[in-house]
Design goal:
The chain is of the alpha+beta class. 33% of the residues lie in helices and 31% in strands. The protein is globular, with a radius of gyration of 16 Å.
Amino acid sequence: MEPLLHPGWPARLASGPVELQPLRRRDAAEWSRVRLANEQWLAPWEPTAPAPWAARHTPAAFRAMRRAAAQRARAGTSLPFAVRVEGRLAGQVTVDNIVRGALRSGHLGYWIDRAVTGRGLASLAVALVCDHAFGRAGLHRLQADIRPENLASQRLVERLGFRREGLLRRYLDIDGDWRDHYTYALLADEVPGSVLGRWRSLTGGP
């Protein structure tokens, strides 16, 4: 058996109606359905790609994505979680590009089904992953890069304690062009108690 190169994977996290777990083979059809239904909601924030949205979100595309994510997780460079809300697939939260050694950092990314927005569930899922990354996975810093136009995502990370550190000019090729991004970061010692505790204090959630 190939040894795990970091202690944070595999993992299952849960609070209230939200569960986070590794992507499963049997999620292919459900993932495809959710992503196709959310094209207008998600496409402005997605990397530029030559293939149309429908072709990139088939069950076969999911299987290829899942294999690549599992390989990075085994190598210790990613924590790729599926988000389930009341048992239904509703998004993903991933800590990717994990670097160990003196840096011990990773990049945070996430998406959520528009059908479950407005209930604080995306921020709950991100809070759970942040605590796991700083705890069992042993990271010191999480970075989230967000387009200036994406005010909802900025509010999400700011409420959880992330600080804006600067502007990255024409940083990523997103939705057909090179886009500026604000870079946000959270350090393991910046949130007393836990990120989940901060989320609960703000929302009154479980």
